[in-house]
Design goal:
With about 90 residues, the chain is an alpha+beta fold. It has helices at about 1-5, 10-20, 25-35, 55-70, 80-85; strands at about 10, 40-45, 45-50.
Length: about 90
């Protein structure tokens, strides 16, 4: 959802509602993704807006491709080659 939302991101409550997940559970998972460096958060009033860190996601995909696919993205399935070059 955050990748598709773009740089403007989504409010935590929006994500929880869309995923039909309790807000506290969603906060826990979003916190883990933020600590991993894959998403960022920004306060807007009393809300927290989360957005994807596209560069970090690209680095993760590149690492997984190099490590798991022996540097051959075509082995990992369709679409990965394009994702690494976007």
């Amino acid at each position: 959802m955050l990748v598709q939302a773009g740089p403007s991101g989504l409010m935590a409550g929006e994500i929880a509602a869309a995923m039909e997940t309790p807000a506290s559970t969603m906060s826990h998972h979003l916190g883990g993704l933020e600590r991993a460096g894959l998403i960022r958060s920004a306060h807007k009033g009393r809300s927290i807006i989360y957005s994807a860190d596209y560069e970090a996601i690209r680095r993760l995909l590149a690492f997984l491709t190099d490590d798991c696919c022996g540097g051959r993205p075509e082995v990992c399935g369709t679409g990965l080659s394009e994702a690494l070059t976007c």
